Amino acid sequence: MVNTLFLPELREMLAERNAHDLQEFVTALNPARLAEYMEGLDASEAWEVLQHAELKLREDIFLYFTHERQIEIIETQDRAGVAELLADLPADDRVDLLHDVQEEVVEELLPLLPADERRELLRLRAYAPDSAGAMMTTEMAMIEEDLSVRDALVALSREAEHVETIYYIYVVDHDLHLRGVVSARQLVSSLGKPDLKVGDLMETDLILVNATDNSDEVTRLVERYDLQAIPVVDNQRRLVGIITHDDVLDAVRQEATDDAQQMAGIAPLEDDYLKTGLVTLAWKRGIWLTILFVAASVTATTLDNYESKLQKWAWLMMFVPMIMSSGGNSGNQSATLIITAMTAGGLSVKDWRKVVVRELCVGLMLGTILATFGGILSTVLTISDPGAREQFYWPFVIPVTLVLVVTSGAVAGSLLPLMFKRLGLDPALMSNPFVAGISDILGIVIYMTVSMLLLR
Amino acid sequence: MVNTLFLPELREMLAERNAHDLQEFVTALNPARLAEYMEGLDASEAWEVLQHAELKLREDIFLYFTHERQIEIIETQDRAGVAELLADLPADDRVDLLHDVQEEVVEELLPLLPADERRELLRLRAYAPDSAGAMMTTEMAMIEEDLSVRDALVALSREAEHVETIYYIYVVDHDLHLRGVVSARQLVSSLGKPDLKVGDLMETDLILVNATDNSDEVTRLVERYDLQAIPVVDNQRRLVGIITHDDVLDAVRQEATDDAQQMAGIAPLEDDYLKTGLVTLAWKRGIWLTILFVAASVTATTLDNYESKLQKWAWLMMFVPMIMSSGGNSGNQSATLIITAMTAGGLSVKDWRKVVVRELCVGLMLGTILATFGGILSTVLTISDPGAREQFYWPFVIPVTLVLVVTSGAVAGSLLPLMFKRLGLDPALMSNPFVAGISDILGIVIYMTVSMLLLR
Fold this sequence. Notes:
homodimer; 456 residues; CBS-domain; Tetracycline Repressor, domain 2; 3 domains; 3-stranded mixed beta sheet; 6% strand
């Protein structure tokens, strides 16, 4: 939904080139709200409004625009103005944005950036997309350890406007090796002892990541230790950047969405659902749907093998979907439990024995419940069938099958994600579709075997 | 995995009552690491080690223990010592902990807490578990608006040790009504202008939540506006607390896990997978498995209705599982896409027309792909069957069915979560199980109808 509250006024001010009112407008409200009120404008109108804010504010508002609008503005509006804005953005946002801008436009913008920003941009772009290096910003607060608390605060007051957070202040030596960290809170609460050295105040046992570490490791550490930001170092333990909590939150949300989509057999989308093209969407779903279809078609050939039995006991066919879906649902539940437990960090591959025992027990309980219902249902539906009734063990076929199918579904559903994890594959990517396929085939084989043993 | 690196040394120091070494140990390392090294100790050993740290450090280490260990210590160790620790914990952590402690123990501990903390605890416990009030802490940095920057920093340096974050400092009037916010960064970078009033510096257009708002609203706002913390007010806009980024991160992770479990038909677990009792696990899964089973048993009665047709064309039975699973998978994909898009905020119920059109198109594309494979497979498997071959339209039954089943699965799978959302129900809770049930029945009805139209 686009917020249209101020749209007519904004358009009028733009048409009249009413600089005074536009300036009033952009300074009166919170930048986040402003960005919302400007959603109804097209990219060049929005850009024109922005020109009435000073650079710092222009940047704040711009950062609240949607990613698509940001890209559109960068690609279509005057290069010099865009470059001025880009030069002032936080380094990590700049890299993320230019990653999605057409390469020709980037080539045109690069020479317009100040040399420092240009070098940094090229360096940050060299990190793998999923690495800590690609998530980090290089604008962090750094001080040297032999400063006093008073001098540190003065140094910080000069730097404060240019850094992304002053919650942590990193203490480095002359070669930028990371030595420790002090919090702004510690500095402020030591104001009474202004001659204390930063080196005596700092915490030296640090939680940090290497720039080449995966983003999963970043989210794990930040969540585990409740950090506001995590320092990023290179192989020589030199401080190269920090990753702040907001980027971690975005990464966690992205991980969760990717996992959910992968569990449903969709290759993760790069854009929002509504913004993904139909052919891309069909492709991302089609791959898995086809793989699943191949697995399902094995059920057809399996059933074909048992054709003579099925013709003899035609009433068995009626329960095939029910049995397969019970096994599939049970397996799906187990797989999801194991995958979410591994993502949240409460379970590792080494626990597999415990998992098997648990799933065996739970599977037997669940199987017994369904067997009770299934036994009643199958008896009611087939009691009028003379081909069924003449068999002594006929009422037991469905209950026995259900217990076995539900239990084996639970065990298979829990073991497959663990197996994929052990092999170094993403459990979320592979397991649910596989579980579905395997439990379907298992279900039919178990059903037919039980039938042949109980019926004659 | 329990870290046992220092376990023998720790046990030895405890046995020898070596206070000096224990004190060395607890002060040498980062509290988070210490908590890990103490995982192998039992609750009373861990508690004894903690006694060698001063209160502030004891509290830091304690907060890194697992939730279960914290509860065990509170319930089993000496009440006076526990009360001293509890009195000093952040208010939100205290409430969360006591929520899981046996009621008798809480009753014994309450009188041991200072009157202020006791009152606050009782007040916080009154908020609904999913509300902003239950997530917040009451230890925030507050200053009055007529203070100068210099006085504000002095006031802050006194408060800094007792508040959860000084990233934002909230500006209030005499009755605690929230007037605005300044960041520590703003204060520090205004050190050059010490006589500036806080009221002139503060931002007044605030993003805030009411204490009774749902936690979903909290995560949405913090994510949308990249906040470090969000202020919580009561109905008179009085500042009653703040929610910090670490609690928001926990809430987002919890939401994602709950959603994934609900989408697989599991009532969300309260504990980690390995810590949930088997009967609880069976119960949380059994409810949905039974509901799904009832839906699946409808397929049995539906198939029963078509029995005469199926006896005439026995080869049709072989493809039932394949057709049902294709429809189910397609529906499952659509439901997951819609649910994750709604959770991430990129889709609302009003977009339903767009969604239907998109799913119709994608469904047709996917259906066509599967129909190609399905057509070949069904022809190969049935070409030797005289009952099939004598029918003119026989090779078209499976392809036509697949196109219809996959398309209707996609449309139903996308509309059901939107419908549940519209009705005020949680889309993640209801849709995938429903989608599975509905698409199974739809699949059979479509298959049988197509067969009757094409075969004679």
